[in-house]
Write a structure and sequence with these properties.
single chain; about 425 residues; alpha/beta; seven-stranded mixed beta sheet; six-stranded mixed beta sheet; 11 helices; 18 strands; about 30% strand; elongated
């Protein structure tokens, strides 16, 4: 039974010493009663107290300090990586050597986040006659980040609750929790945003696939029958599609606003990170070359490249990214603008709106860039007005309150 609010009763050395002397005093008192009084009653009392004293004293060698165990994690097939919002099922199997009677066992397990946050799980288990015990528990919905399992504590008491005996297990394991993502079926306005509202036909030609096969990818619902790669499908047992090389497109960057001033609480930033991860997931499935600009306590720049290697590198960065930037989006982009090729499409993921953001987007257009604003956690009162204001300037804006809205906003349906 899982008891998150349970607290171990760990006695101090002074308390244990007092209890030990109390047991010895009772034993000596019963021995004196036997020697000076004699009789069957004194003998019986001494034998009973002697047996109980031996039982209590042998608890020091209960074997709990030499406890061995195995921790097993039950989750998806992605190894030690799960997605934010998922729960983790944990099973701990314990083996306590020795023969001292052990009526129950208190177990405490810790899961420590890289930032120092700690999740504690506690329960009471009953060992079987072979002194084996098994404990299963489920974590709450996990937040993004790297986690490490800490020391596992095992505590037991005698049947009278006088003495406690403690053991510790080192079962090192780590867990990586990726940002939460949402599948995007199609970004219908992608080509329009890359080339601008007046260049849709040229963008379509630029995005056209060649007849050169570039590899094999996962089947996407809606693929034509002619795209099915039958040999790969037969070998793997899952549907596979042919991947064709694409004609070159203008470079596409995602800019993640990490300014500390931009976020009043952590939820909007988590939404921004999840939106960026979802877009990179979409780009990896479609073979798009996406780059990332992420500046905070660390400065990360990923040149736009297609392929799984780029996708995994960005996702590893997004696991630990925090809103810890000192400079605003304009200052960061002014430093990075020389690294961006003219004509590039820049998607700003930020909760900021207003005159400052408008000036930044207009400035990017003056630098021959094609900006787009992904407005996370939008102000409901200004939502429509801001979208219309940017549209009048030829700038696309998506207002996303929840991650589930992202596919619909991009035009691919919910």
């Amino acid at each position: 039974m899982l008891r998150p609010s349970f607290a171990f009763k760990l006695a101090g050395r002074s308390g244990s010493s007092r209890k030990l002397w109390a047991v010895l005093s009772v034993l000596l008192g019963s021995l004196g009663f036997l020697l000076f009084q004699g009789g069957k009653l004194a003998l019986m009392l001494f034998v009973i107290i002697f047996i109980l004293s031996v039982y209590l004293l042998l608890g020091q060698w209960s074997g709990i300090k030499r406890t061995k165990g195995i921790r097993t994690l039950k989750h998806n097939e992605s190894g030690t990586t799960i997605e934010a919002g998922s729960t983790l099922e944990v099973t701990i199997q314990l083996q306590i050597p020795g023969f001292w009677p052990m009526p129950y066992l208190f177990v405490k397990d810790r899961l420590v986040h890289k930032s120092g946050r700690e999740l504690t799980f506690e329960a009471t288990v009953v060992p079987d006659w072979k002194r084996r015990a098994q404990w299963e528990y489920k974590t709450p919905a996990m937040r993004r980040g790297h986690y490490v399992f800490g020391t596992t504590e095992c505590v037991t008491e005698d049947v009278f609750g006088l003495f406690e005996h403690k053991g510790e297990l080192e079962l090192p394991q780590s867990i990586s929790v990726l940002p939460q993502t949402v599948p995007i079926r199609e970004w219908q306005q992608f080509h329009q945003m890359v080339k601008g509202t007046n260049h849709q036909s040229s963008t379509t030609r630029a995005a056209r696939e060649t007849t050169q096969i570039n590899g094999v990818r996962e089947y996407i619902y809606g693929d034509r029958l002619s795209r099915i790669h039958w040999n790969a499908t037969a070998k793997t047992g899952t549907w596979k599609s042919k991947e064709f090389e694409r004609e070159s497109l203008p470079k596409t960057y995602l800019f993640l606003d990490r300014s500390l001033r931009s976020y009043q609480d952590p939820d909007p930033f988590e939404l921004a990170v999840s939106a960026a991860a979802s877009m990179f997931q979409y780009g990896a499935h479609r073979g798009l070359a996406l780059g990332l600009i992420s500046c905070g306590a660390d400065d990360k720049y990923f040149e736009p490249r297609p392929g799984q290697a780029q996708y995994h590198a960005v996702m590893q960065h997004l696991i630990d990214v925090e809103a810890d930037g000192v400079y605003g989006a304009r200052q960061v982009l002014m430093e990075k603008i020389h690294m961006l090729a003219p004509g590039s499409f820049i998607k700003l993921i930020s909760p900021v709106s207003g005159d400052g953001m408008l000036e930044l987007l207009v400035w990017l257009k003056q630098q021959q860039m094609k900006p787009c604003h992904l407005w996370v956690n939008p102000d409901a009162a200004r939502r429509e007005a801001w979208v219309k204001q940017l549209k009048s300037r030829g700038i696309v804006c998506y207002a996303v309150q929840h991650l589930s809205e992202l596919p619909f906003q991009l035009g691919g349906g919910r």
